[in-house]
Design a protein that fits this description.
seven-stranded antiparallel β-sheet, two-stranded antiparallel ribbon, alpha+beta, Beta-lactamase, globular, Class A beta-lactamase-related serine hydrolase
């Protein structure tokens, strides 16, 4: 290789690295015009944030929402307030809400054995006489191992299900099943305070329970009973329900100093649908990504958060009774010294005083493929913060399991809208 070619390639590499480290300068998708715009632009530069969708709620309304940066770098599409992103684990709150709607109809009690609904015996083989209950699934105390120790079985199961003849939960959960592995289970008894383990697979089982109890596909159930009633018209668990695929933002992972496109890099082409017409609801549970596959934006997500802030109702649409909301937000599990990210939980709701220091917040965060999202509210002062980022160079934070990007955005929004007032 000639010295010229070597120098040229080195220059191109540097140019690529500069571009990817300076996405907000190419030029910015939207020039800052207000103080909050300038603060957000500064954070985006500091943390190489590709795009942001964010909203702030106070009392019964959204007092601010906006969108910044890029939804698709290759196609140079900016994030707008209509852009939707896969929001990762905040999705679990919708799964829990779906199940609690069935609870309100008297179809089960929280401490019932889920085996009676699943249609097969579901037991930790280390404790064959101890039932796994609905409450256990909603509090991550079922004694299923956390994903890393359990072999990322939710990923294995989800990938195996991307065809018209998906495996069943029995294939995964019953000893001898073709996808079963012993690492699925911890040695703790279901419900033991020490057995808390954050488990994505649990949400797939909950989605299957919702399908069993409702007789509908999970995506259809959520669309009809939560999303559309709340006016979340662009939000869905099923990408086929999206009207304009160009409103879907790409998720970018940070790899060795540059961004790599990952989830939802579809180039404006909706994927071919999988024929699940023969699928029997309740036999799989993973098809629509209940553990993290909801696509939405901050403005629409605020409608869901407001419903919980107002006892289950927003703008005339009631998704839960007040008593059920209070139950979901009440402490169901608490233990010191397990995991700084989760030391207290309601029925799927994360309870923390670390999102905003010394403010007791209810909600959930999301982290997948380079995306970080957060939706948390404070009941006492009646405010809430939502953000979704689709790529950054985030590193470890200083409190409660949140990373430095999550901390910086939540702190900035809280200080701008509330602390300075």
């Amino acid at each position: 290789m000639s010295m010229w070619n070597h120098s040229w390639q080195k220059a191109k590499h540097a140019e690529r690295e500069f571009f990817e480290m300076s996405l907000w300068k190419q030029p910015p998708a939207k020039a800052p015009t207000t103080q909050i715009d300038e603060k957000m632009a500064a954070l985006m530069e500091t943390f190489a944030i590709v795009g942001v969708s964010a909203a702030v709620v106070k009392d019964k309304q959204v007092i601010w929402s906006d969108a910044y940066g890029w939804a698709d770098l290759d196609r140079e599409l900016p994030v707008t307030e209509e852009t939707v992103f896969r929001i990762a684990s905040i999705s679990k709150l919708f799964v829990a809400t779906s199940l609690m709607q069935q609870y309100e109809q008297g179809k089960f009690q929280l401490d019932d054995d889920i085996s009676d609904t699943l249609g097969f015996t579901f037991r930790n083989p280390h404790h064959p006489d101890v039932p796994v209950t609905f409450r256990h699934l909603l509090t991550h105390t079922s004694s299923l191992n956390e994903d890393e120790r359990g072999g990322e079985l939710y990923v294995v199961f989800s990938q195996a299900s991307r065809n018209s003849n998906p495996p069943t939960l029995e294939d995964l959960l019953i000893p001898g099943g073709r996808l079963y592995v012993d690492s699925l289970w911890s040695s703790y008894k279901p419900g033991d305070v020490r057995c808390f383990a954050y488990c994505n697979l649990a949400s797939m089982i909950v989605a299957a329970l919702v399908e069993r109890l409702s007789g509908k596909h999970f995506d259809q159930y959520c669309r009809e009973h939560i999303l559309r009633p709340l006016g979340m018209t662009s939000s869905d668990f099923n990408i086929q329900a999206m009207g304009d695929i160009n409103k879907l933002g790409v998720i970018y992972g940070w790899e060795d100093g540059h961004f790599e496109s990952g989830v939802d890099d579809l180039k404006g082409v909706k994927p071919e649908p999988i024929d699940w017409s023969e699928y029997v609801p309740g036999t799989n549970g993973s098809l629509y990504g209940p553990q993290g596959g909801l696509r939405t934006n901050a403005r629409e997500l605020s409608k869901f958060m407001l419903a919980f802030m107002q006892g289950g109702e927003n703008n005339g649409a009631r998704i839960l009774q007040r008593e059920t909301v209070e139950l979901m937000l009440s402490t169901q599990w608490q233990y010191e010294g397990v995991d700084p990210a989760f030391s207290e939980i309601g029925l799927q709701f994360h309870i923390t005083d670390q999102f905003i220091p010394n403010k007791r917040m209810h909600g959930h965060g999301g982290n997948a493929y380079g995306l970080y999202s957060g939706m948390y509210f404070n009941k006492e002062e009646n405010f809430g913060i939502i953000f979704i980022t689709n790529g950054s160079n985030a590193t470890e934070g200083t409190r409660g399991g949140f990373n430095n990007v999550e901390e910086a955005i939540s702190d900035m929004l809280y200080q701008h809208f509330f602390q300075s007032k």
